[in-house]
Amino acid sequence: MVxxxxxxxxxxxxxxxxAMVMIPPKPRTIWRDVKSFFGRRERHNWIAIIPAIAVPxxxxxxxTTEVGANLLPEDPxxxxxxxxxxxRSDAQIIERQRVLALAENxxxxxxxxxxxxxxxxxxxxxxxEAAAEADRITEDNRRRLSRDDDDAEGVTPDTxxxxxxxxxxxN
Length: 171
Description:
By secondary structure, this protein is mainly alpha-helical. Helices cover 57% and strands 0% of the residues. The protein has helices spanning 27-39, 43-65, 90-122, 128-145, 150-153, 165-170. It is elongated. The model is unreliable at 151-171 (pLDDT under 50).
């Protein structure tokens, strides 16, 4: 049969591979394929197959041995709330808030001073007007919140309710 250019599509075409039947191979065929595959390997193939097999098995071994490891998170630390006496007066509550506000005011003033020193040491310009305003507010708060008898009472935010200095350091 001579095929001309015009009718090449009209000729009956067969599939390239024919009908592929998906039948599982026989064990004997599988064994021959495996022997043939490993029989043709060179030395570097055998050296490369060792880590290729060892790494996945190592990963699986680590996963199986870590099953018994303590994977749960540790219990969170327990923070106990202060227990206030039941009959506290409003004056005691206000005094506690005043002492805490004074301590926070001093902490912020110290932090600002440390940042100012760091800026001077680093050669960074700071906004003098904003710094002066913050210092003015700090002084106003000191005047409003401080009392002459603070030293006599010995009331501080860390020791008012029997909390030790170690407890205050952890908070």
